[in-house]
């Protein structure tokens, strides 16, 4: 299992369109990928779960990946969130 803290930089946060992009990205990986904000954990392969975290600009989220391609999956998610500026 690997994990990394990320700050949401997108000025509109992780709303429906970027959340959908994230879900489509993580579905490419076999690992179980979770987003954790405060005491809430969301399955990153579910758009409903991701949206319930209410990730606004400046929100801190822990990205956790567990599985055979966890390192690659973690880096892909961290990069996606860091470069998201729509």
Automatic annotation (TrEMBL):
Pfam families listed in its UniProt record: PTS-HPr (PF00381)
Source superkingdom: Bacteria
InterPro entries for the chain: HPr, HPr-like, HPr-like_sf, PTS_HPr_His_P_site
CDD domains per UniProt: PTS-HPr_like
Domain HPr positions: 1-86
Keywords: Sugar transport, Transport
Free-text function comment from the UniProt entry: General (non sugar-specific) component of the phosphoenolpyruvate-dependent sugar phosphotransferase system (sugar PTS). This major carbohydrate active-transport system catalyzes the phosphorylation of incoming sugar substrates concomitantly with their translocation across the cell membrane. The phosphoryl group from phosphoenolpyruvate (PEP) is transferred to the phosphoryl carrier protein HPr by enzyme I. Phospho-HPr then transfers it to the PTS EIIA domain.
Protein name, per record: Phosphocarrier protein HPr
